[in-house]
């Protein structure tokens, strides 16, 4: 296919504009001076104040509604010692993000390196949706499809978001999330291809031993979350001027 030069110019101009596109932060969001002694304190207040707006979603910035957060489809394979197989989750809704409390926020700007640490708590997250699973726990065959719900309570999460400032944008390299959960309740309709007694036993087992299962799944969840959240953060921060968010005037 041959395109006229003028069309190519129009397309490349469009791409350049797209790449540099800046979306102004909502004017009501607090700006924090990066040279101020209370930079971190200001950022904690800024996030806390902005959170109800963020939770509703800001489409211009690519932030979807966060409560409930909708996951259309997600696929994960497991290859740990006891747990092997594949899990597909569809039409999942995650409720509770609105309840996040930002306990502490620490910002570190050093040359072009910028990182943000946060301690965040949330009383309860409920996830529900459809699933399909197939695999083994130890030598035991499991599989099935149906509905599930998981309630997590008393969640304390440490976030560490690392990156660099480039062309007045924060480029995120890692988005690390370390959640501690004090209670979990798990329900699924069928994990044993229709065997109700086994499913009932599995529910009792899961609800008793969820800390062990959770620890077993963390090595899979953590890198997945890091990739997912890093992409997400970059889609958002590539549209925001760093010097507008964190001005440097004295
Ligand atoms: C999970 O689903 C089951 C079956 O529909 C229901 O009985 C239970 O109340 C649900 N749990 C929560 C926390 O919604």
Keywords, separated by commas or semicolons:
single chain; 250 residues; alpha+beta; Bactericidal permeability-increasing protein, domain 1; 6-stranded antiparallel sheet; 4 helices; 6 strands; binds 2-acetamido-2-deoxy-beta-D-glucopyranose
Give structural notes:
The protein has 250 residues and is an alpha+beta fold. It has a single domain (3-11, 21-245), classed as Bactericidal permeability-increasing protein, domain 1 (Super Roll), CATH 3.15.10.30. It is 32% helix and 42% strand. The chain contains four helices and six strands. The protein has helices at residues 5-20, 39-56, 196-237, 242-245; strands at 69-79, 83-95, 101-110, 113-137, 140-166, 169-188. Strands 1, 2, 3, 4, 5 and 6 form a six-stranded antiparallel beta sheet that branches. Strand 5 (140-166) and strand 6 (169-188) form a beta hairpin. The longest helix is centred in the C-terminal third of the chain and has 42 residues, at 196-237. The termini are far apart.
Give me a quick take on this structure.
32% of the residues lie in helices and 42% in strands. It is an alpha+beta fold and 250 residues long.
Q: How many E-type strands?
A: 6
User: Low-confidence runs (pLDDT<50, min 5 residues)?
Assistant: none
Shape: elongated
What is the level-2 CATH architecture name? Super Roll
Helix content: 25-40%
* Helix and strand pattern: HHEEEEEEHH
Corresponding CATH superfamily? TULIP domain
SS summary, helix count: 4
Tell me the structural class: alpha+beta
**CATH topology group:** Bactericidal permeability-increasing protein, domain 1
CATH classification, class level: Alpha Beta
- Total individual domains: 1
Beta-strand fraction estimate = 35-45%
| Overall pLDDT metric | 90
Task: Please state the CA-atom Rg, rounded to the nearest Å.
Answer: 22 Å
Q: For the record, give the distance between the C-alpha atoms at the N and C termini, rounded to a whole number.
A: 55 Å
**Which compounds are bound in this model?**
2-acetamido-2-deoxy-beta-D-glucopyranose
